Amino acid sequence: MRVIVVGAGVIGLTCAVRLAESGYEVAVLARDLPLETTSAVAGAIWGPYLAEPADRVAAWAKASYDEFTKLAEHEPSVQLRHGRELLVERTPDPAWADVLPDLTRVASPPVGYADGWAFTAPVVAMPQYLPALVKRLENAGGTLTRAALSGLPSTADLVVNCTGLGARLTAADQTVTPVRGQVLSVSPCGISEWLIADEVCVIPRSNDVIVGGTSEPGNWTLGVNADDTSAILERAAALVPQLRKATVLRARVGLRPSRPTVRCERVDDVIHCYGHGGSGVTLSWGCADEVLALVAG
Fold first, then answer.
1. Contact status, residue 281 vs residue 65, Cβ threshold 8 Å
2. Any residues with CB less than 8 A from the CB of 131 and at least 6 apart, and which?
3. Which of 84, 90, 9 is nearest to 47 (CA)?
4. Pairing between strand 270-274 and 263-267?
5. What is the β-pairing status of strands 270-274 and 158-161?
6. Superfamily of 177-258 according to CATH
7. Residue 251 near residue 187, CB atoms below 8 Å
8. Which letter, b or e, does each residue of 133-168 get, where b requires 16 or more Cβ atoms within 10 Å of its Cβ?
9. Alpha-carbon gap, residue 91 to 117, rounded angstroms
10. Cβ-based neighbour number of residue 116 at 10 Å
11. Domain ranges within the chain, ordered by starting residue
């Protein structure tokens, strides 16, 4: 069976890898190549964000957590790192808490925070991980081609629509809207644990630290905002003082594809898989497994 996957962000590539490694003939067509997508900008720490419904998200996130834990044993772009998520209000355990073998409460949150969790999470270095997915796809016989499509192709047995924000066109779905996120890449400065707190995220990787960010619903602006850069650094350094010594290497913007609920379903010969918000990496392998089941079914 020939399957065309449209979209080469982390969702499209992961679905394509899963299908190709399961024996399907897979071609990925995309306007933007992997390192040009929103996925390439992501800080890419495991953890559901801007994605519903909670029960399906938790199941997809668990499958992805398990897969990334295995990948961390041999894929250099995937690391397991411990860290903390701080919360401004006392909060019940999240729906995905049972996924984590070492989730604990933060005993003494800093001033301004009332609660928090500490746990080990996969951290994925997207500039290296996305090419690794492409290599896996090609090793399994799949292809990746740049193509500016005005709609979904009709030259395959099945089409998997992983176009993110592009689903406004490919699926005529106006419920998909952008949530602008600006993040910084800064020089390593002795930070080994990640931190998430309200608008702040600090995610150490092998060669840099991702510092974020912004979350602006409805904002289509892709240009870097210098005021945002200053504000992001100041907020983060208030919690992680080592960042005051860091050099900003790059600022980038991505538009998260938000939707009231993630769409993962089959309609005739099209499987739609989009609207993952800020959880593309977190849900990628779980959604790919579901797409594989929808293709087989």
1. no
2. 34, 35
3. 84
4. antiparallel
5. parallel
6. D-Amino Acid Oxidase, subunit A, domain 2 (3.30.9.10)
7. no
8. bbebbeebebebeeeebeebeeebebbbbbbbbbbb
9. 10
10. 21
11. 2-176+259-296, 177-258
pLDDT in tens, 93-132: 888 899 999 999 999 999 999 999 999 999 999 999 999 9
Average pLDDT, the chain: 96
**SS percent in the chain: helix, strand, coil, step 5:** 30, 30, 40
Tokens of 151: 């709609």
- List the beta strands (DSSP E) in 170-296: 177-186, 194-197, 200-204, 209-212, 216-217, 248-258, 263-267, 270-274
**CATH architecture, range 2-176+259-296:** 3-Layer(aba) Sandwich (3.40)
Residue with tokens 């800080």: 43
What is the percent of the chain where pLDDT is above 90? Answer: 95
Q: CA–CA separation, 206 vs 127, rounded Å?
A: 12
Give 78-96 as a DSSP string.
EEEEEEEEEESS--PPPTT
